[in-house]
Amino acid sequence: MDWIDTITRTFFDVDAMLAVLPQLLAVGLKNTLIISVSATVIGLVLGMVLAVMGISRTRWLRVPARLYTDIFRGLPAILTILLIGQGFAGMSQQVFGASPYPLGIAALSLIASAYIGEIFRAGIQSIDKGQLEACRALGMSYPKAMALVVVPQGVRRVLPALVNEFIAIVKDSSLVYFLGLLVGERELFRVGQDAAVLTGNLSPLVMAGVFYLIITVPLTHLVNYFDHRFRAGRRRATEPSSGLAEVEELNTTPSTVGSKA
């Protein structure tokens, strides 16, 4: 049928896909991973700072953290990227040259830190307050108790959410192309788009989408695996206590009967 041939030629032209494959591997994939990993690492550091500030008892720490989070979570990602990329272009040229690459990473880092900060905050606040009180009773200072006991447990609980955030950063990295990346700095989307414009065929963009799927789909299954393991671990942790209660009940029942007799 004609429409099947049209769809095949437009989206699944094997020759066009194979032609763009070397650039996707050598340029697009490398730059996408560099942008995503760099933004995630910076976002993790800033996010932890925001989380600690957000749960602080001091108002002058808590309020700025909330304002920062509300602003960068409320703005569209493309708007933040354009504001950072164009607003600080002159300053960036003096330090990094003509490349807008660092500004794209900076913009994604600011966006990621707002979301990661909320993830960390939720994880930390999910830990029972009795653990912090127990640490304080043992003579540990508040910062030491948070750093050694509360925060590590909170981070472990939110690992699936952090992986989900990394997936979102990988997809948002495609928006950096609005800043006009150099030829050697193009990420997956820009490589596919340029090839699609030159060939008049959308198959290179489809091939770029395949690369995004190769990155994100395994991570999605990894999130499900982590979530299953953590849920199973929590169930196993509660089983001994319930079993102990049953044993105690069985031990107390005969004595009660005997006393009545």
CATH hierarchy class name: Mainly Alpha
In N-to-C order, the SSE pattern is HHHHHHHHHHH
What does the radius of gyration come to?
26 Å
Low-confidence stretches: 241-248, 253-261
Number of strands: 0
Number of domains as seen in the coordinates: 1
Task: Spell out the key features of this protein.
261 residues, single chain, mainly alpha, MetI-like fold, 84% helix, 11 helices
Give me the secondary-structure topology:
Blueprint: H1 2-11, H2 14-54, H3 59-74, H4 77-87, H5 89-96, H6 101-125, H7 129-137, H8 142-157, H9 159-172, H10 188-199, H11 203-260
Helix pairs in contact: 2-3, 2-6, 2-9, 2-10, 2-11, 3-6, 4-6, 6-8, 6-9, 7-8, 9-11, 10-11
